[in-house]
C-alpha cells in the first residue's frame, strides 16, 4: 500500500508503524514474525498506514522524533525536529554559557538538548502557541531538565526580561511564495512555524534588532537559516553591531546557522 502510494522509504515506514502498533521496538519485530495481531493492533496499524499514504509525517503517526540522541514527543502543534537543527545545537555547545534564551521553542528540542548537555546551565524557552508550550514542558519533564528551565509565553522578545549568555532560535524562514513547493508532509506541520507569510527574513529582523538588549557582554546570538539566506542574515548581524560573525554549514555543506558575538 505504501509503495503503491509512492511513499519513499515504504519498507522502513511499514516496519516502524507495525512496531508502534505492537508497542515494541522495531529491532524486536523479527521475534514476532508468527504472532497473531489483535484486532485493535491491526486496526491501529492500517489506520497509520493510511495516514502515511496521505503523507502525514512519521513523527505524527509515531508521536515522537529522535533528536541529538534523545526521543522527543511530537504532535501536529510543533515543528518536527530535524537533523539540520543539530547544527545549531553543535554551534551553541561550542561556546561557554550558563544562561540562554530559546526564541520560538516549539517542541523544546533545542532548549532541552542544551540543558541536558550542560547540566549547570539554565534556560528559558518562549513561544506564542500554548499547545506547543505544553509539549515543550512535557519534553523537559520526561528528559529530566524541567528544573533547569522555564517555558514562557512571549512574541519574540515581547515579554522577555533580563540578559543571557546565549540566544538561539530556529524561526520560521520559508517565504510565503515558496510554501506551495514544499513536500506534502509539511502541510501537516504548523504553518506559523514554517513561514513568516512574507519574504522569510522578517523574524531575523526582529531577533537581530532585539538581541543586543538581551545579551550579556561577550554573549552569542545563533540562528538557523535557510540555505540561501546566509548573506542577508549576516548583514543583519553586522547592522546589529555583532562581531565574530560566521556561517556554519550542515552535514550536506549547506549554509545552516549564523553566529555572532556581542562585544565585551
How would you explain this protein's 3D organization?
This protein is of the alpha/beta class. It folds into two domains: 10-54, no CATH class; 67-261, Rossmann fold (3-Layer(aba) Sandwich). 33% of the residues lie in helices and 20% in strands. The protein has eight helices and nine strands. It has helices spanning 10-22, 39-53, 58-62, 86-93, 109-117, 130-142, 202-214, 230-239, and strands at 64-67, 70-73, 99-103, 122-127, 149-153, 164-169, 215-224, 243-249, 255-261. The strands form two sheets. The chain has a seven-stranded mixed sheet, with helices on both faces. The protein has a two-stranded antiparallel ribbon with strand order 1-2. A hairpin with a 2-residue loop joins strand 1 (64-67) and strand 2 (70-73). Helix 1 packs antiparallel against helix 2 (39-53) and helix 4 runs parallel beside helix 5 (109-117). The longest helix has 15 residues, at 39-53. The model has no long low-confidence stretch (mean pLDDT 96).
Amino acid at each position: 500500500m505504501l509503495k503503491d502510494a509512492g511513499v519513499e522509504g515504504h519498507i522502513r515506514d511499514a516496519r516502524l508503524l507495525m512496531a508502534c502498533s505492537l508497542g515494541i521496538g522495531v529491532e524486536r519485530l523479527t521475534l514476532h514474525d508468527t504472532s497473531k495481531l489483535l484486532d485493535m493492533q491491526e486496526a491501529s496499524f492500517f489506520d497509520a498506514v493510511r495516514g502515511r499514504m496521505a503523507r502525514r509525517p512519521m513523527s505524527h503517526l509515531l508521536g515522537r522524533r529522535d533528536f541529538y540522541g534523545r526521543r522527543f514527543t511530537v504532535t501536529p502543534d510543533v515543528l518536527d525536529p530535524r537533523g539540520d537543527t543539530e547544527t545549531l545545537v553543535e554551534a551553541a555547545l561550542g561556546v561557554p554559557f550558563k544562561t540562554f534564551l530559546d526564541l520560538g521553542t516549539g517542541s523544546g528540542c533545542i532548549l532541552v538538548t542544551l540543558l541536558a548537555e550542560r547540566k549547570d546551565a539554565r534556560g528559558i524557552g518562549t513561544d506564542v502557541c500554548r499547545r506547543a508550550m505544553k509539549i515543550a514542558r512535557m519534553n523537559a519533564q520526561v528528559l529530566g531538565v524541567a528544573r533547569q528551565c522555564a517555558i514562557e509565553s512571549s512574541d519574540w522578545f515581547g515579554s522577555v526580561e533580563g540578559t543571557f549568555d546565549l540566544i538561539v532560535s530556529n524561526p520560521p524562514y520559508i517565504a510565503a511564495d515558496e510554501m506551495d513547493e514544499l513536500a506534502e508532509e509539511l502541510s501537516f506541520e504548523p504553518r506559523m512555524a514554517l513561514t513568516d507569510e512574507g519574504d522569510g527574513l522578517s523574524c531575523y529582523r526582529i531577533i537581530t534588532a532585539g538581541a543586543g538588549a538581551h545579551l550579556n557582554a561577550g554573549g552569542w546570538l545563533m540562528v538557523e537559516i535557510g540555505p540561501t539566506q546566509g548573506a542577508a542574515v549576516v548583514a543583519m548581524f553586522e547592522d546589529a553591531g555583532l562581531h565574530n560573525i560566521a556561517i556554519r554549514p550542515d552535514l550536506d555543506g549547506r549554509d545552516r546557522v549564523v553566529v555572532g558575538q556581542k562585544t565585551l
